[in-house]
UniProtKB/TrEMBL annotation:
Gene3D superfamilies: 2,3-Dihydroxybiphenyl 1,2-Dioxygenase, domain 1
UniProt protein name: VOC domain-containing protein
Domain VOC: 11-136
Top-rank taxon: Bacteria
InterPro entries recorded: Glyas_Bleomycin-R_OHBP_Dase, Glyas_Fos-R_dOase_dom, VOC_core
Pfam family name, one: Glyoxalase
SUPFAM superfamilies: Glyoxalase/Bleomycin resistance protein/Dihydroxybiphenyl dioxygenase
Length: 139
């Protein structure tokens, strides 16, 4: 006899990010998200990237220009971590982000304090938006 049907787990459908300068943010986000396999969709007043079946990432212009950048460690956004398939891919994405103008927060390296398999890097765009590219395979 089958067990009770469990409710569907809620997943993140989309993530909206407010940026100070939309064209500049697009120039930083597009190479990174494209390298991650996302496809770009331009709309009136915003731009989005989607893989079709994963979380969509949308950039919106600030309603009050000049109110950024976000400061890491303050209430609000912390960082978004992407699950990356290999350490070499972490390195490649790091180079793409830096070439697109993202600042290096932490170079690619092992993070044994998380676990012995963890390898990651952290980058931040001009709006203070922080991404992590993380290789963290299961045991």
């Amino acid at each position: 006899m089958p067990g009770p049907k469990l409710p569907r787990m809620a997943l993140v459908d989309h993530l909206g990010i407010t940026v100070d300068d939309l064209p500049a943010a697009i120039a930083q986000f597009d190479p990174v998200l494209t390298a991650l396999g996302y496809t770009r969709f331009d709309a009136d007043g915003s731009v989005a990237w989607s893989t079709g079946d994963e979380t969509e990432i949308i950039l919106f212009p600030a309603r009050e220009p000049g109110t950024g950048p976000h400061r890491h460690g303050r209430v609000g956004w912390q960082h978004l971590a992407f699950d990356i398939a290999t350490p070499a891919e972490v390195d490649r994405l790091h180079r793409i982000a830096v070439d697109a103008g993202w600042s290096v927060v932490r170079e690619p390296k092992p993070y044994p304090r998380f676990n012995e398999r963890y390898y990651a890097c952290f980058v931040e765009d001009s709006n203070g938006i922080r991404f992590e590219f993380a290789y963290n395979p299961p045991r």
